[in-house]
Amino acid sequence: MQPYELSLTAAADAIRQRQLSPVELTDSVLRRVAQAEPHLQAYVSVTAEHTRRAARAAERDIAAGRHRGPLHGIPMGLKDLIDVAGTATSASSRVRAGHRAQADSTVAARLEEAGAVLVGKTHTHEFAYGLTTPQTHNAWDRSRVAGGSSGGSAVAVASGMATFALGTDTGGSIRVPAALNGVVGLKPTYGLVPRHGVTSLSWSLDHVGPIARTVEDAAVVLTALAGHDPRDPASLTTPVRDYRPDAGTNLTGLRVGVPRNYYFDHIGPEIEASVRRAIDQLQALGARIVEVEIPMTRYVQATQWGLMVPEATAYHEATLRTVPELYRDDVRILLEAGELMPAGDYLRAQRSRTLMRQEWARMLREVDVIAAPSVPATAVEAGQETITWTDGTVESVSDAYVRLSSPANITGVPSLSLPVGHDTAGLPIGMQLLGRPLGESTLLRVGHAYEQTQPARDLAHAA
């Protein structure tokens, strides 16, 4: 096994035990970038010389007894919405040509303080306004979409071009590409991870979170990221804690909610079969299965778009009027549509969200977690615009991918996507676990317990 193939936790243990140096790990990852990046296009930019300098500095610190913890010397990618002082935050858009960040975002500063080593900035669907990241190729099949908008981060992790990465999630943009590329993605509770210095898509729906190879890895990163920052008005005041789950697999007494509606409607049969097998495994570990009714499902799509579209348009108001030609057509059309939405529609979406949060809180008193598919279909072919379901219903690819993930953004509850199998074409399938606000520890415990009962996962080798 090459060092770039190691999980974050395995690499951190090897570094701590002086069996692997940060320089050896970083060099291995950079060699993998040189091999895979021309085929997968996960990165906007790779800062190889800076990366090597940071790895050497980490090695010196660790040798001198100044070990900062499990992220020290670990190579990472940051979605190119996340400011790093002195580097461009392009948002994968021509609108940002020539941009340079003046200061670190909160999350970049926290990861640097923890000793993580930046490999580069990863591609996003332009300004995070889409679910495919068209410039990036799926890590398992280059002819298929990466998912979005954090497609570059997911592909980098899935292919070994980063040991972990950060993404953002406004309607599923961490969990969708994580599911489509066979890695773990965590959208934390709204406000748990600060967004200062992160380009916004929709302020009331935006989240920042980790993409990693294992649930335990995601927990390590969340531990470094979480905590109050007064510069983010939505930032929660929560105690500092270690989110890493215990090693046990006993889930006795845990109540797992399985939706009888919505989440298993209009999904691929192989996805349903894989997710239900994973739920059976949770039951075998002692969990009690409880059927639940997802509330207000007819309002999910209207509420998601009713919040996101006007908020995104407000953020882009100045550049949309001065340089509209610099946006990709799909993004410009959505931004222009936001200018046509009445204020009443936005207020009704806010009211709907309030009611939906109340109903979800009631439902989540009956169970500890909800288990459901992450996405209704595996990665579609690049350029495919619609999915036709077995009953003849036709759905746009973007609507399909956002449909199962957006409820967690509307309500703000945490959601963890983890791999639970592959379809007959070899494409990954993801299951999401949803929980109560600030219930990340429970989600991570359940996901980690499941993961320990499964064979070790291989990296994708589409490159």
UniProtKB/TrEMBL annotation:
Keyword field contains Chaperone: no
Keyword Transferase attached: yes
Segment forming the signal sequence: none
Domain Amidase as annotated: residue spans: 24-444
Keywords assigned by UniProt, alphabetized: Transferase
Matches recorded under InterPro entries: Amidase, Amidase_CS, Amidase_dom, AS_sf
Matching SUPFAM superfamilies: Amidase signature (AS) enzymes
GO MF annotation, one: transferase activity
Cited PANTHER family: AMIDASE AMID-RELATED, TRANSAMIDASE
Record protein name field: Asp-tRNA(Asn)/Glu-tRNA(Gln) amidotransferase GatCAB subunit A
Upper classification of the organism: Bacteria, Bacillati, Actinomycetota, Actinomycetes, Kitasatosporales
